[in-house]
Write a structure and sequence with these properties.
Elements lengths: L2 H7 L11 H19 L7 H17 L9 H4 L3 H12 L11 H27 L10
Length: 139
């Protein structure tokens, strides 16, 4: 058996690992920080809630710029027309497979990051109104 026959008959892997450990850690750190901020957010803003928000903000800022090729915004941000065309293709059973995020997945990531960024920004403003945090207002 020659080496070219060995290559041709070698089995293909069933899965492709797209997300490296840093990205996986970032995903779970976001879940943990959101959970901490959500659970500790009753009534007054305590230090745990505030720091949970800071961690969420940092993760959102870093999300699109740190990590492997498929984890960066430049790889999966598509126009709304491409995302709608992808949804239509899915309905007809001809949706293309992507390594990383599909156009629909990319739209979901953008929506999630926008909502998280808005939540962090409103929290910073509210905290600043109390005279605390980086956006504090003098009374």
């Amino acid at each position: 058996m020659t080496s070219s026959e060995t290559i041709r008959t070698a089995p293909r892997p069933d899965t492709i690992l797209v997300w490296d450990p840093l990205v996986r850690f970032g995903h779970w750190a976001l879940v943990a920080a959101f959970t901490v901020a959500y659970v500790s957010g009753e009534d007054e803003a305590d230090a745990l809630h505030v720091w949970g928000g800071y961690v969420i903000g940092a993760i959102v800022v870093l999300r699109g710029f740190v990590g492997p090729h498929h984890a960066r915004l430049t790889d999966f941000v598509r126009s709304p027309i491409v995302a709608v065309a992808y949804f239509i293709d899915l309905l007809y059973g001809r949706g293309r497979r992507y390594i990383g995020h599909s156009p629909a997945g990319g739209a979901m990531v953008i929506a999630l990051l926008a909502c998280l960024a808005a939540t962090v920004a409103t929290g910073l403003v509210a905290y600043g109104e109390e005279g605390k945090g980086p956006w504090r207002r003098s009374r």
